[in-house]
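Homework-ish question, so no full write-ups if that breaks the rules, but can someone show me the predicted structure for this set?
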Amino acid sequence: MRAVVLDRELRLRPDHPDPAPAGGESIVRVTLAGICGTDLELGRGYMSFRGVPGHEFVGWVESSGDPALRGRRVVGEINASCGRCSFCAGGHERHCPNRTVLGIAGRDGAFADFLRLPDRNLHPLPAAIADDAAVFVEPIAAAYEILAQLWPRHDRPILVLGDGRLGALVAMVLSCEQFEVVVAGHHPEKLARLSALGLRTLLESQLDGTFGLVVDCTGDPRGFRRALDLTLPRGTLVLKSTAAASGEVNLAPVVVNEVTVVGSRCGRFEPALAALAAGKIDPCPLISAVYPLDEFAAAFRAASTPPNFKVLLRIS
Amino acid sequence: MRAVVLDRELRLRPDHPDPAPAGGESIVRVTLAGICGTDLELGRGYMSFRGVPGHEFVGWVESSGDPALRGRRVVGEINASCGRCSFCAGGHERHCPNRTVLGIAGRDGAFADFLRLPDRNLHPLPAAIADDAAVFVEPIAAAYEILAQLWPRHDRPILVLGDGRLGALVAMVLSCEQFEVVVAGHHPEKLARLSALGLRTLLESQLDGTFGLVVDCTGDPRGFRRALDLTLPRGTLVLKSTAAASGEVNLAPVVVNEVTVVGSRCGRFEPALAALAAGKIDPCPLISAVYPLDEFAAAFRAASTPPNFKVLLRIS
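A: Not a homework solution, just the prediction itself:
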């Protein structure tokens, strides 16, 4: 099969071996895949990943031991857990220490004709969710994870710092759940596009005052420092960026201002699927371009270029 | 009056001007004062403080507009707030942006014959609390602040990382509130003394596994990194150190493991006073030495020297 493979660099291999499913795994033919900030970071060394990247996808179940899955259009949770440890037993499969993660850790991902995932990770899609929306289920689920970890006040604005893909989706999710949101970033063109989607936006340099809840979607240690400055004493800062870089961070303000920093990663797919099926959220205006798999290099360049938001790979 | 003054270095001034009370402030003649890690850090530039350090004290009210305070033996909350802002109105006086802090920010402290504090900051002491215990009210209140911010599970051990003054008091407070505590540090002699007080201790190198709740009392950015490694996914790390240094910190594990980092600083005095009055906690075994004010330099050296815990200054 064709696959984009990260070794020292990203390359398209026309004859990569097809995935060999383990017991309880299905094979999915990938239709559409999204390029995420994490994919760009993997190329810079994050997680020391080698293999096929890609973890946002929609596709069709090609083969499965589960008759309920065969031939179904699906999306898939990316953490493949052991099902036996105390995390799995406690409902925290996404923190299973024995997990592999699709296209991120120990498991080939979605930038390929086929992928394999455990049957239990796959969610058949209702017809109401088209492919180009379904490819956003994983990052929308990651945005909903914030609301699984804490429940903000509805009467105070939430600051989303970062006007990229992640910031946009976090702002859309919080906004569709009736929270008051301000998105701030450095890119006037991106902010203009988000404003056109009905979001309240501000240039980061225009931010004034502090917020009880700040979500750092900057993907940058400097962003964390700025986010900390913008968090009210006794406030909460959600750290949503899996930035590869470590940086000089002075944590004294966390103590002095008694800030709570909440790390937030992947979420369960159900709330994202429900919001998309109900039409509460429409991520499709965030699609900046769609490239065929063979043009992955141009697609990755586009995904790194503001004011682009989401760049997709059309695989089949 | 005599006062230890931090300018470029710490010096005892025999003729420092007496404090001039503002409206609503009392003058306290200091009996006994404790040297805290923060005092040592102020000397290294933390908070850019200039003036008289010292914020752990017990003394007698020499003059006051409040007849209920005159002649009383007192301890005092160290944050002098404005009483008018939204933080003060919301019961978070300790985060008032207009505050001064005794011996730490904008207000001379306790390493002097006299200090001034707002009347409302002062707590008359019951006879049951002797001076050498009373001088611990402020750091014990800071330890209790953890329990004002979160309520741990009683059925899982809490790791207190750091075997210094702060770690010892945090462990004593959590332990006297029936939580299961392990104190870990680098100093066998300190750990032996804490074991003799009934605390469960471990050399940090012997730590194995992770904890759902870790309290970082190391006062060191490396301590934070180690504490993060020792925190279970989805666990909580309380950051209790006002370390002056910023350091290279990779926050990716906070996101990947969805750790909640809770900054924790000063606490209300009431729980500390109640625990001391009821005999639930006895900090006096932590006193390593008592020096007269005139020997402050030797006292500061002793406070920086393991295996010493608390060093006090006898002022009157």
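Now go work out the reasoning yourself. Hint: Chain B touches chain A at residues 46, 87, 92, 95, 97, 149, 221, 224, 233-234, 239-265 (CB under 8 Å).
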